[in-house]
Design brief:
Structural class: alpha/beta
Radius of gyration: 17 Å
Strand content: 15-25%
Number of helices: 10
Strand order of the largest sheet: 1-10-6-2-5-3-4
Shape: globular
Helix content: 25-40%
Number of strands: 10
Largest sheet: 7 strands, mixed
Length: about 260
Amino acid sequence: MVDPRPGGLGLYDPDYVALNAPQVGRLIHGYFRAEVRGLERLPEGAFLGVGNHSGAAMIPDTLVWLAAYHNAGLRTPLLTLAHDAMFDAYPAALARWLSRFGAIRADDALALEALQGGFAVQVYPGGDHDACRSFARRHEIVFAGRKGYVALAQRAGVPIVPVASVGAHEALIILWEGRALARWLGADRRLRLKAFPLSLSVPWGLWLGPLPGYLPLPTKIEIEVLEPVDPTGDIDEVDARVRGALQRSVDAMARSRRAAWVG
């Protein structure tokens, strides 16, 4: 039986997405002056999208990418894996809304079920290692040694599509990542939080720990969809190819940016 609770597959609503994605896309893309390139590289049918993401709790680059995909008229529905906190700590109405748009729990079995069912699935292997890296490291790909996404693509028999992004880590300023503090507090065990960052954001100012949301600064966000990667072969080698492709794309986009918040 399909799980009807937020975070399961049962709440995804393609009609709701088709009706609401245009308005959501206009709002998000307009605010962030978004540019999304490479949609023509997407394969037909199920695939595993693998990306870097930024901006701590708000992950604005993920929102930009999902809005672009949902508004592109593509036949393959896209789901995205999300942290448990999105479904357990967010208000129930918000968790349900996100689930209707395709957010599901970051669970390997659930992701495999979705891929085998013909969905595309977007994953962010770096998790909060990536989303909470310091501002000085904003253009680094940080997967923290996580390679399970390769095994997932191999089990599902689907290609990996790297999705690179820049800009979202300028929506707030992370001064310190707080990984040791997360371990000391036990947040890594109890809450699956690998970082306990010190950040500067609107309206909270200086804040230690996970943010309760924030008003993102109007940074320019760019997304580039890269050529699909065949997942067959040695996991380490496939992972290196994916991370290398993402880093080269991020480096190229970063070089063309004039300054933070200008783009």
